[in-house]
From TrEMBL:
The lineage of its organism: Eukaryota, Metazoa, Chordata, Craniata, Vertebrata. It comes from Oxyruncus cristatus (sharpbill). This is WISP2 protein. GO terms for cellular component: extracellular matrix; extracellular space. One of its GO terms (molecular function) is heparin binding. One of its GO terms (biological process) is positive regulation of cell differentiation. The keyword Secreted applies. Residues 79-145 form the VWFC domain.
Length: 218
């Protein structure tokens, strides 16, 4: 098959197509002659080295001097985000991993964790909780160790007097859970006999509650 090529120079394609970085597909160059790696967001481009159209990118010459190449950008100056070699459009919500959900906005992105970061305190039915990674599951989970197994490990690591100095650490007490009357405040601290982080609670009073109107008896 023979076709006309309106190119500024002859086409000489390598026998082996180039190996492209992650997120850059293999496409035809601007002459429709050779296979090249598509340019990504922010990378230089020209009539031959084309941008990744599957990501909505075009070669932007608006900020380039006359006669030089441009920069790959979104059409109509639309901003986006590039994460791990992939481009996301402005306003798009995506998950770079099963533990994070991110939002692309104004050229940057913010992420929130999808796994709970709670602290489990010892209880009578689970005196020694421990968080572990479970095969086949994304988020770590709490498990309850047997008392004998925990005592054996403690016998090796913890003596009645700690073999290392305990650098006390703790967060500030949270605001009272009640807006009036009695509530509770929480903090995370290691101020205990084993120098381990735990969630601590204490009662607090946010002032007396206002009296209800006579028309609305308690």
């Amino acid at each position: 098959q023979v076709c006309a090529q309106l190119c500024r120079r002859p086409c000489y394609c390598p026998w082996v197509p180039p190996r492209c970085p992650r997120g850059s597909p293999l496409v035809l160059d601007g002459c429709g002659c050779c296979k090249i790696c598509a340019r990504r967001l922010g990378e230089p481009c020209d009539f031959l080295h084309v941008c990744d159209q599957s990501q909505g990118l075009v070669c932007d010459y608006s900020t380039a001097p006359a006669g030089t190449g441009g920069t790959c950008n979104f059409e109509d100056d639309e901003e986006g985000c590039e994460v791990n070699g992939r481009v996301y459009r402005d306003g798009e919500v995506f998950q770079p991993s099963c533990k994070l959900q991110c939002h692309c906005l104004d050229g940057g992105f913010t992420c929130i964790p999808l796994c709970q970061e709670d602290v489990r305190l010892p209880t009578s039915d689970c005196p020694y909780p421990r968080r572990v990674e479970i095969p086949g599951k994304c988020c770590p989970e709490w498990i309850c160790e047997g008392r004998d197994q925990h005592l054996l490990r403690d016998a090796r690591a913890v003596s009645p007097v700690l073999p290392y100095p305990c650098h006390e650490w703790g967060t500030e007490w949270s605001a009272c859970s009640a807006t009036c009357g009695v509530g509770f405040a929480t903090r995370v601290s290691n101020q205990n006999r084993y120098c381990r982080l735990e969630t601590q609670r204490r009662l607090c009073t946010a002032g007396p509650c206002p009296a209800l109107p006579a028309a609305f008896p308690a």
